[in-house]
From TrEMBL, chain A:
InterPro entries, per database record: RDD
Protein name (database record): RDD domain-containing protein
Keywords carried by this UniProt record: Membrane, Transmembrane, Transmembrane helix
Transmembrane annotation, as ranges: 43-68, 80-102, 164-182
Signal peptide: none
Domain RDD: 33-195
Topology class, membrane: Multi-pass membrane protein
PANTHER family documented for this protein: SLR0254 PROTEIN
UniProt keyword annotation of Membrane present: yes
Automatic annotation (TrEMBL), chain B:
Keyword Transmembrane helix on entry: yes
Keywords of this entry: Membrane, Transmembrane, Transmembrane helix
InterPro entries linked: SpoIIM-like
Protein name per UniProt: Membrane protein
Membrane-spanning ranges: 122-144, 199-220, 227-247, 253-271, 292-313, 319-338
Length: 311, 343
């Protein structure tokens, strides 16, 4: 029964990363926590983008400065240059934070890096994702990573970086970087503080109705015999399979690979003691699928579920 | 299959569908597809291009979708359909319960009251942190007064160049007035990356350890200050020293105080979560503390600019006092007296 209940839910994710999120309406939805590899991939993409943006900005500034110096206008005073440089330092700090804030405050709640690996930020308790939460998780990113690295770099450049400070800085960054691996929800310290987590962003595509009994010709108005009419299965033939087999059959029909259809049709026929419908596997399987599903769904309405052929 | 069909085709399809669950699906499919298109548009930031009736219909369609999902889970064995409804519901949920503010909108609400509210919310922690800082300063002063050797244990070597016990009045005066080594830029950079900004951020970050390291850090740092004050006070330079310190120190010490209080707030939630779970308490206090810290960063940038530029431009003690305490009054008024009505 438990297995039947999980059928049709999110497939293909690591079961250890699967969670249930209850919306304020009380509906339980399946979410998958983003894997550590996706997180680190997104981080590297974001860092690369940030580095590229800064590099582009600096190059533009240098180009402007060069253009200014070639025009032969009066030289700028040192004090003014210092002031500009200070603005530049502050600007870098703000731009770095603004990048994360701007994108995570958007509808997709994901930076470019997160978008490209298909993950997003969400509120852990199922409520609204607030701006405060985004601020908190990004502020902690600075404390976890950027600031220690900056202190270490500037200390190293000025020659005031002691070996002890360097090691403690490295350990500091290391602890925070490894922190997501040490808890089951892959929470960074910032996520912990903000009450958020990073989950796979859902993708949805609605497949066509499998074996609706409607052929394109019928939809256009012609009257053709339905596939279900050609094959009639009795109670004995239909009772051999459960929900698991039904949904496997659904997948086979959706993929519509001729070899797979042939194999599956042969297997079913062997099981129910029919002779294989050579050349007409598609119609046979659609009829079997429809009638099996009708039978199982009828049971479902009366509260009887059958997980698979063994139950 | 029915998406592009005519209305008669659609009705025919519904009528012809053998399964009750397929009829259920075909009857509602148009709504889902419409919601899907709207969610996609909103995810791509094209909210403004949605028609008014679409925006009005969004909550209704969302509720319909949720009830469809519940029904489908109980009555349909179409795995593809349920997977689609699950994913679409999750996407619609993220849109409906997504962030309401934009970056600019958040900035406005943050500086227009959000920051002040957050600071007032941690009032108790501010009082505790303030007590720790006062105790530290008094302790530093008294320790050095009892035995000047304490000075060398309290004050890091880089600060005690000339400013040591027994230094002449003129030497001390020289550190307070006149051009110091370096220009505004290097002072600012050294400031931003080295001393007190680090203290503020550490005081916040160490709040995780139940706030104990935060308290120690606050006491130790103001003890250094108290020791320094004794050196100047012993040569009768108290007023000048306080003036020199105040011009940026009021902003900076207030920033350290707030950072320490934010750290304490988190440590306190971790140690005494009350009826909430530890994680819930942590995230609740973390959101408040993070807002305060954003304010702290702004204050530290201001303090850096004041230290790098204003302190050397302004050489008169009276004006230093006026600037330092004027700015302090502005900060305090902004944090505690500025109470705009919540929008």
């Amino acid at each position: 029964m438990a297995r039947a209940a999980t059928l049709g839910r999110t497939r293909g994710t690591d079961p250890r990363l699967r969670r249930t999120l209850v919306t304020p309406e009380g509906v339980a939805l399946d979410v998958a926590v983003a894997s550590a590899s996706a997180r680190i991939g997104a981080l590297f993409i974001d860092l690369t983008i940030l580095f590229g943006l800064v590099l582009g900005f600096v190059l533009t500034l240098m180009l402007l400065a060069w253009a200014y110096s070639t025009t032969g206008l009066p030289a700028v005073s040192d004090g003014f240059m210092n002031f500009l440089f200070v603005l530049f330092i502050i600007g870098l700090f703000l731009a770095r934070n603004a990048y994360f804030l701007f994108f995570e405050l958007g509808q997709r709640a994901a930076t470019w890096g997160k978008r490209s690996v298909g993950i997003r930020v969400a509120s852990r308790d199922g409520g609204r994702l607030t701006a405060e939460a985004i601020i908190a998780r990004n502020l902690l990113r600075d404390i976890e990573m950027f600031l220690p690295l900056m202190f270490m770099t500037s200390g190293g450049l000025q020659g005031t970086l002691s070996e002890f400070a360097a090691w403690s800085g490295i350990i500091w960054v290391g602890i925070f970087l490894l922190f997501p691996l040490l808890n089951k929800d892959r929470l960074r310290c910032g996520d912990l503080i903000a009450g958020t987590w990073v989950v796979d962003s859902p993708r949805s595509a609605l497949g066509a109705v499998v074996a609706s009994g409607v052929t394109p010709a019928l939809a256009a108005g012609d009257d053709i015999a339905l596939p279900a009419d050609r094959y009639r299965f009795g109670e004995r033939e239909l009772s051999v399979y459960g929900e698991y087999e039904l949904q496997m059959l659904e997948q086979v029909l959706r993929t519509a690979n001729p070899d797979a259809l042939e194999t599956v049709a042969a297997t079913i026929c062997a099981k129910i003691g029919w002779s294989a419908p050579v050349g007409d596997e598609q119609a046979f399987l659609e009829a079997y699928y429809t009638q099996l599903r009708a039978r199982l769904e009828r049971g479902l309405r009366f509260g009887r579920r059958r997980a698979d052929k063994n139950s | 299959m029915t998406g592009s069909a005519t209305i008669t085709g659609e009705e025919q399809a519904i009528a012809a569908a053998v399964l009750r669950s397929d009829r259920f699906r075909l009857e509602r499919e148009a709504d889902w597809v419409r919601l899907d298109a709207m969610v996609t548009a909103m995810e791509q930031g094209r909210l403004k291009r949605l028609a008014d009736e679409d925006v009005l219909a969004l909550p209704v369609l969302y509720r319909h979708l949720i009830s469809s999902l519940s029904i489908a889970r109980e009555s349909s064995l179409d795995a593809g359909l349920i997977a689609y409804l699950e994913a679409l519901t999750l996407r619609a949920y993220y849109v409906v319960y997504g962030t309401r503010t934009t970056f600019g909108g958040w900035c406005r609400s943050f500086f227009g009251g959000g920051l002040s509210r957050a600071v007032r919310a941690i009032g108790f922690d501010i009082a505790v942190a303030f007590a720790a800082m006062v105790i530290g300063a008094v302790l530093g002063f008294m320790l050095v007064e009892a035995d000047p050797q304490w000075f060398f244990r309290l004050v890091p070597a880089q600060f005690s160049d000339v400013r040591i016990p027994g230094a002449s009045r003129d030497a001390l005066l020289g550190t307070l007035f006149g051009k110091q080594e370096g220009d505004g830029l290097s002072v600012f950079a050294a400031y931003l990356f080295n001393n007190n900004a680090q203290v503020a951020i550490l005081a916040f970050a160490l709040g995780f350890a139940f706030g104990v390291p935060t308290m120690l850090l606050l006491v130790y740092n103001t003890a250094t200050l108290g020791a320094m004050l004794w050196v100047f006070a012993s040569r009768g330079l108290t007023v000048e020293f306080v003036g020199w310190l105040s011009i940026h120190g009021t902003t900076e010490l207030l920033a350290i105080l707030l950072a320490g209080a934010a750290g304490l707030h988190i440590g306190r939630a971790l140690g005494f979560p009350g009826r909430r779970s530890h994680l819930a308490a942590l995230s609740q206090s973390g959101r408040t503390a993070a807002q305060v810290m954003t304010g702290v960063i702004v204050m530290l940038i201001c303090a850096g600019l004041l230290e790098g530029f204003a302190r050397q431009l302004v050489q008169s003690t009276e004006i230093r006092y006026a600037i330092g305490y004027g700015i302090l009054a502005l900060w305090l008024a902004y944090f505690f007296a500025y109470r705009p009505r919540r929008s």
